[in-house]
Amino acid sequence: PKIDAQEAWDITTGSSSVIIASIDTDFDITHPDLANKINPSYDPITLITHSATGTSHGTNTISYAGAQNNGGCQLASIGWNTRLIAYVIDDPIAQAQHASLVMGADVITYSFSGGGPPDDNDMAAVKEILDNGTVIVRSAGNFQYNNDDDRRPFAHQYDERIIIVTST
């Protein structure tokens, strides 16, 4: 209700031609609202099958983008008809490049802190991803004390086309 999702769903529930790649932690591919959504069922680079053995952060973040709203559980998304790809956080720049250039992702989501100062090679890679037509969306922070400085490698200094979102 806070974001008027019902009204948005009257317009669209997403499209199976849209691919959203999430770079995060521990994706639970057995979750009822994600079981038929994350494909492949493994990390496309490491080939390791996803299993939520730690926190549920990756499961939560990918759910906002494309959980199946009628999966019988508690998750809901804006565009449940989209396709999802999940990468377990390792080298986010390489993973984002793979998602964009190899897997054909239209959108990359990232909700993680860390990294050092802007790096010219990373900035060039981010530009390549965005120039390929892939949108990068990342969280403004997971805690009240986060700020943009610790959100690398997808901080605003890398490219002004990166979309930064907060929660409600």
Describe the structure concisely for a colleague.
The protein contains four helices and five strands.
Task: Provide a descriptive summary of the structure in words.
- The mean pLDDT is 85.
- The protein is an alpha/beta fold.
- It has helices spanning 5-11, 57-66, 92-102, 120-131, and strands spanning 19-24, 83-88, 107-110, 135-139, 163-165.
- Helix 3 (92-102) packs parallel to helix 4.
- 38% of the residues are buried.
- A 5-stranded parallel sheet has the order 2-1-3-4-5, with helices on both faces.
**Cross-sheet strand order for the largest sheet:** 2-1-3-4-5
Rounded mean pLDDT is: 85
Distance between the termini: 11 Å
The main sheet comes to:
5 strands, parallel
Total count of strands? 5
Question: What is the percent of helical residues?
Answer: 10-25%
Following the backbone from N to C, one meets helices and strands in this order, namely: HEHEHEHEE
Q: What Rg is obtained from the alpha carbons, in whole angstroms?
A: 15 Å
